[in-house]
Amino acid sequence: MYPIVRKEILSASVKLFDLKAPLVAAKAKAGQFFILRSDEKGERIPLTIADFDREQGTITAIFQEIGAGTRLLGQLEAGDAVLDVVGPLGVPSEIERFDGPVVVVGGGVGIAPIYPIARALKEAGNRVVSIIGARNKELLFWEEKMAAVSDELIVCTDDGSYGRKGFVTDALKDFYEANKDLQRVWAIGPMPMMRAIANTTRPMGVHTIVSMNPLMMDGTGMCGACRVLVGGETKFACVDGPEFDGHLVDFDLALKRLTIYRDEEKRALAALEHHHEGGRCGCH
Amino acid sequence: MSLKEKIRQEMPCQDPQVRRANFDEVALGYTEEQAVKEAARCIQCKKPKCREGCPVEVLIPDFIKAVAERDFAGAAVKLKEKNALPAICGRVCPQESQCEEKCILGIKSEPVAIGRLERFVADWEMAQGASATEAAPAKGAKVAVIGAGPAGLTCAAELAKLGYAVTVFEALHTAGGVLMYGIPEFRLPKAIVDKEIANLRQLGVELQFNVVIGPSMTVEELMNEQGYAAVFLGTGAGLPNFMGIPGENLCGVFSANEFLTRTNLMKGFRFPEYGTPVKLGRKVAVLGAGNVAMDAARTAVRLGAEEVTIVYRRSDKEMPARAEEIEHAREEGVQFKLLTNPVEIIGDENGWVKAMKCLRYELGEPDASGRRKPVAIPGSEFVMDMDTVIVAIGTGPNPLATKSTAGLELNRRGNIVADEEGRTSIPGVFAGGDIVTGAATVILAMGAGKKAAQAIDAYITAKAAEAAN
Ligand SMILES: Cc1cc2nc3c(=O)[nH]c(=O)nc-3n(C[C@H](O)[C@H](O)[C@H](O)COP(=O)(O)OP(=O)(O)OC[C@H]3O[C@@H](n4cnc5c(N)ncnc54)[C@H](O)[C@@H]3O)c2cc1C
Ligand SMILES: Cc1cc2nc3c(=O)[nH]c(=O)nc-3n(C[C@H](O)[C@H](O)[C@H](O)COP(=O)(O)OP(=O)(O)OC[C@H]3O[C@@H](n4cnc5c(N)ncnc54)[C@H](O)[C@@H]3O)c2cc1C
Ligand code: SF4
Ligand code: SF4
Ligand code: FES
Ligand SMILES: [Mg+2]
């Protein structure tokens, strides 16, 4: 069992857990993820390692409740435990020192996974410019944490309820206009956002890394559910990624593949809602 | 002698029409009367050919003799002298190409049903309750076993019996490897695997799940920092191959590993009570004709697919699956489209599979494997309507553990190079099972695990003697 040592509610649908998982905490690096299973009947849910504390042996996960799996997870409280945690998985981000500014872009819950990358880039001596965005103010989190590891922080909301009104792509374009020596971009968020960032940087010729979040199960290269097409080649995101060159990723295919189990996901959510708020009773 | 039956005893099975809709075991096992009758068919050869066909040289005539004499307990003792997991092997060994192929009775009539007798004895013994195995006095040395498949589990059990403190590190959340995530319940009930794992725990073996050797911990750390005197790598061949044809990333194309793992390990057949969904259309093609393909096809039948077709580029003689599984698949209504191979998977506007373009084949000259090579017939292209494609054309070695171990020699396919006893290029590091041989069989993996345990014992003993001098 892996205890939840701290829970924080970041917004109505976004929660944070600090999980005791010493083995994962000991090895975790920016860009990696882990997989958890809340209980015997639960799915294996991949989540990014948003932070880690090697001394305490804890890792931090931030997740959005979107379907049955994450909703059930969100019902757990500090002091509860999840049944399985495995990681760190995936290839760590390549962190090096660049001769010019680098930009990290985090959209929605993508702010969580972009944080350790920004920190690692900063620690490597880079000039780090962070752009974080969400639909509205309520959905923003970790602004201060991001500011602490950035030379400059730009905050955007789609509806203008906080920071700059507009999309992260607009903020990135403006930054590039003023800083043509932009070296590299990391973008993490919903796939349409990552695609939009990749499309924005393509004409600039700025190398852009995105973190793909396809369907995953084992996370060790055993099932192939996480296939993504990168530069015409099939890759397994869990072991070859999750980071890939955003200019080479086939986003259309990736977006379609996310919908494979949509009918079943709806059924699972309906079954969950049909039950009392306590969660699964297994009466089916 | 006149009492002897010419024909082997039939295996009682669930009716095909009934079992098409459930995940319960298909073959029900011999009754005592059947077992005794079948055992009486064995003529107790002085030079038993059957043993030559068995990779672990089970004392076949000896255990069968005991069955014929109704000494089932004695039969179990004989059987387990060479085979630690008879309940599993009796069910999944390809007997027709191993022990039974060599049985002398097979020349004139039917071979003795060695596998079925093996299963009978193992099940009989389990029904009597667990027999305590006595472990040797503690040796004071620790050994790490990576991977809890048949190779790793057998190696761990042997080492524990020799008195070593053994820890098994497994990437998944449960033990068993392919026995748990690949082979379905209707062929190998998971309760049997669980019993074997409980036995292992009784021997004092520690199981640590959710540890991926490589990213979570390295072999070097296990040996240099955590004090393991030796490491056994039994990480299997779990990396699914795809064909590299257009359309194979469409929605509705799954690897057999994904499909079977969702169903078996994650219990997707009980979705939504269990959270992991399984997706299946009405018309399902399974590519390949090995055990994995048969398991996928028969699982698809049970999940309610209307039409399930095995698509294979050679003929029925070359199909690598166990004969019994092919027969069972046919009885359950699985179709076989042989001498056929897909060249493209065609999608609809939403990115879902809708058809498969195939070529017909004929058999040409024998190839390196001795099987006649399939040759495409020019202009034979045709299209099959399909909404699900399950790819079961083999698996390769998973590189997570091997690539993180500096100095470990691999062959060009990525398999670990190891000698007969499991020794690798690194002293103290041993390997066996599918990670060495490529995808093979349960019994070969077990045999490799057992041999390696003996080699590990010899290695540690010699090192200790050296240190004492
Ligand atoms: C490497 C990686 C890192 C991730 N990191 C985070 C993170 O830090 N925070 C966060 O909120 N989310 C993260 N995700 C996405 C998260 O795993 C999914 O949102 C979650 O699994 C949905 O489960 P569900 O049962 O609640 O939703 P469902 O109702 O089952 O599905 C809703 C949608 O979620 C996606 N999804 C469903 N199952 C999976 C699965 N097994 N793997 C991936 N996506 C799935 C699909 O797009 C699906 O349509 C990450 C995914 C990957 C692959
Ligand atoms: C669907 C299917 C049906 C089959 N049917 C038959 C049959 O009827 N008869 C037969 O004889 N054979 C059959 N086989 C083949 C047989 O199952 C295998 O040959 C056998 O399981 C190999 O055993 P193994 O211990 O080498 O590897 P596996 O059983 O593959 O076990 C390897 C284990 O190592 C773990 N692992 C991998 N990498 C790591 C890592 N880095 N760190 C920690 N753990 C790791 C894996 O999760 C897995 O649990 C079948 C195979 C499949 C897939
Ligand atoms: S272990 Fe397999 S090959 Fe050996 S006797 Fe038993 S069934 Fe036959
Ligand atoms: S070869 Fe056949 S008949 Fe002879 S001992 Fe073996 S099982 Fe019995
Ligand atoms: S999640 Fe199974 S191979 Fe990547
Ligand atoms: Mg889900």
UniProtKB/TrEMBL annotation, chain A:
InterPro entries: Cyt_c3_hydrogenase_gsu, Dihydroorotate_DH_Fe-S-bd, FAD-bd_FR_type, FNR_nucleotide-bd, OxRdtase_FAD/NAD-bd, PyrK_electron_transfer, Riboflavin_synthase-like_b-brl. FAD binds at I62, F63, Q64, G69, T70. CDD domains: DHOD_e_trans_like1. The keyword Flavoprotein applies. GO terms for biological process: pyrimidine nucleotide biosynthetic process. PROSITE patterns: FAD_FR (PS51384). Residues 1-95 form the FAD-binding FR-type domain. GO terms for molecular function: 2 iron, 2 sulfur cluster binding; flavin adenine dinucleotide binding; metal ion binding; oxidoreductase activity. [2Fe-2S] cluster binds at C223, C226, C238. Binds 1 [2Fe-2S] cluster per subunit. Keywords: 2Fe-2S, FAD, Flavoprotein, Iron, Iron-sulfur, Metal-binding. This is Sulfide/dihydroorotate dehydrogenase-like FAD/NAD-binding protein.
Automatic annotation (TrEMBL), chain B:
GO terms for molecular function: glutamate synthase (NADPH) activity; iron-sulfur cluster binding. The keyword Oxidoreductase applies. Keywords: Oxidoreductase. PROSITE patterns: 4FE4S_FER_2 (PS51379). It is an enzyme of class 1 (oxidoreductase). Its EC number is 1.4.1.13. The keyword Cell membrane does not apply. Residues 33-64 form the 4Fe-4S ferredoxin-type domain. It holds the Pfam family Fer4_20. SUPFAM superfamilies: alpha-helical ferredoxin, Nucleotide-binding domain. This is NADPH-dependent glutamate synthase. It comes from Heliomicrobium undosum.
